[in-house]
User: Fold this.
Amino acid sequence: MERKRSRADIIHDMLSIIQDRKGKIKPTHLMYKANLSHKQMKGYLDYLISNKFVEKVEDGDRQMITITKKGRDFFSRYRQLREFEDTFGIN
Amino acid sequence: MKIVFTPDWFLGKDVLIDVFSFLILLTFFILSTRSYQLNKKKSSFYLGLGFLLIAVGQLASVLTKVVLYSDTSLIQQVGQAVVESQIVQSVDIFYYLGFFFYKLFTLAGLFLIYRLSTGRRMLVDVLLIAYFVLISVIAGTGVEYVFYLTALILLMLITKGYYKVYKKSRNPNTLLLIVGFTTLAISQIVSASFARVSNWFVVADLIELASYFIFLTLIIKILASKDRKEIQRGLHGKKKK
Assistant:
């Protein structure tokens, strides 16, 4: 059985999903792809927006979520730290 | 009395090796600290502390050598036998104190990393090994090989611990970490066997340098890590249940 995702894992997963979608995704798609409940999604999205990792933009009549430069930097840094933890067996 | 066993032609170069080692250890400390800030895991914190202790040990070694080597030139300038003996005495105390801290911090740091690599949490273990570390440092001040042997044992235990991690993860970076620690252990074998032979002292230092180059390669690999799809293991993990 895989270990439970940490808060940082979930944030990384959300940013990773947005990156995979060329930096832009619908909120509902993000919620399903990140395996989050509506309540969880709201909490994490608020955190990401308040930390300026993502932002909400209007795309025609749809609302989309886009990743910011700060979000990409965090994503990159997280990847390195995850690699470091894996190397030393920290889990 | 011979204060250091480094041959004259190698004086200064050994300090550079120590500085290089210090920087590598400091980088590991920074990575551990960042990891702790992100995940709040105690193991990240203690790993960082372990590397910091060894780094401080290296710094103590660097400072001691720098002062010691400059004192030697001072003695040469003055050239008076009486003055020389007085300075040698003060240098002697400084030497023992400086290297005492180098040994204490190095073994304490290695011990912390060993504890993390094995994942054991028994208080008796901690107290017993902490006691042996202290004894090794105190005894090792007079008998050099006691310190090197203790460091060797700790490094072998660390390597064993990370081999278990590697068997589970098959992560090539962990393998590189094992190679680095093994190389460092070999340098301790050479040091313990020929602690007071100048040329072998250089060989041991060069092997130690090689181990820190391996750690540098590891750091570069970690920092240049490409995105791996398995990083999303949390997502896939939920589906697998």
In short: Helices of chain A lie at 7-20, 27-33, 38-50, 69-88. The radius of gyration of chain A is 14 Å.
